Amino acid sequence: MHLPTSAVRLMTRGVVAPLLGPRLPLPVRRRLLSATGLGLPLPRGTRRSRTSLGGVPTLRVTAADAIGPQQVLYLHGGGYISGSPASHLALLAGLSRSAGAPVHAPDYRLAPEHPFPAALDDAVAAYRALRAAGHPARRIAVAGDSAGGGLTMSLLLRLRALGEELPGSIGLISPWLDLDLRSPAVQANRDTDAMLDPDWLPLAAEDYRAGSDAPELRPLEADLAGLPPVHVVAGADEVLVGDADAFVDRAKAAGVEVTYRREPGMWHAYLVFAGLLAEADVAVAELGAAFRSDCTPT
Q1: Which of 23, 118, 251, 286 could disulfide-pair with 256, CB 3.0 to 4.6 Å?
Q2: Residue 166, SS3?
Q3: CB atoms within 10 A of CB 112
């Protein structure tokens, strides 16, 4: 049952947003953020199991009859310092249903305990494990929200640099692609974004980068030519919408097949409220259908 958009916005601002700022100790924020995800409704028949991909603890989420053969590798958001598969459970389940595929969400290592490149190394290991299990690259979709969107792009850049085959489809939800936060939207939308306060983002970026300036950390400066189809979703009211706008423009200029849902009135990573928010369900359904089309054998 969907709630009014205004009610979900209030819940986001009052419950979720404080867990993404520095007011509470980081371990407390992590536990509470995971707990918020566990309270959201899931599609009937959703199954969950704890597995491992390449030595990385992973949550496998499968909606009823979502048997593939396509597979989805999902990298959760949380500013590289928080978030978990549990905090994104409703989104994972909705995406499994719409893509008709199991969704594998690695519980990758977080900063500041494990700065770059730990999360990227875990993402690479998980992707390679799916390949080693017999899934062709063209039948794997890789997606992520916020920091997970940035990590998705880092994974693509790493794989391409190593000469490895790229996945068949990419999803970027409210991606954080510029750790230097240079887009004017960061400040222009600070009062309209119900989830993100931009003041804590530089601290999270510093914890994650730990002084590194590796190319994988600068996807907006990368050569995007030759990427698989990319499907981007962002809220028009969010502080990171400028990153999505810039990426879409650069990807199109490089000849990449791109779709872009820039949803009016929506805040950062609103798709995490799949099952509760009508706008989230529409976007999740569209994204999953794109994965199914890109990755289904012909």
Answers
A1: 251
A2: coil
A3: 14
Residues of the chain with pLDDT under 70: 298
- Concatenating the DSSP letter of every residue in 37-90 gives HHTS---TT-EEEEEEETTEEEEEEE-TT---SSEEEEE--STTTS--TGGGHH
Which two tokens mark 145? 């929200």
**Structural domain that includes position 106:** 5-295
Give the distance from CA 38 to its chain's centroid. 18
Query: Going along the chain, which residue ranges are E strands?
Result: 47-53, 56-62, 71-75, 103-106, 140-145, 169-173, 230-235, 258-263
**How many domains, the chain?**
1
Q: So what's the pLDDT on residue 298?
A: 66
Q: pTM of the predicted model, to two decimals?
A: 0.97
According to DSSP, residue 230 is labeled E
CA terminus-to-terminus distance, the chain: 36
Q: pLDDT per residue over 123-159, tens digit each?
A: 999 999 999 999 999 999 999 999 999 999 999 999 9
Q: Got the DSSP string for 253-274?
A: HTT--EEEEEETT--TTGGGGT
Instruction: Locate 296 and state its tokens.
Output: 């289904």
CB-CB contact of 222 with 256 (8 Å): no
Pairing of strands 56-62, 103-106: antiparallel
The single residue listed with the structure tokens 């290991």 is: 125
Q: Which residues contact 165 (CB under 8 A, 6 or more apart)?
A: 131, 137, 138, 159
Residue with tokens 């959201």: 40
Q: Tokens standing for 140?
A: 């794997």
CATH number of the domain to which 73 belongs:
3.40.50.1820
Q: Among all residues, which ones are annotated catalytic?
A: 146, 238, 268
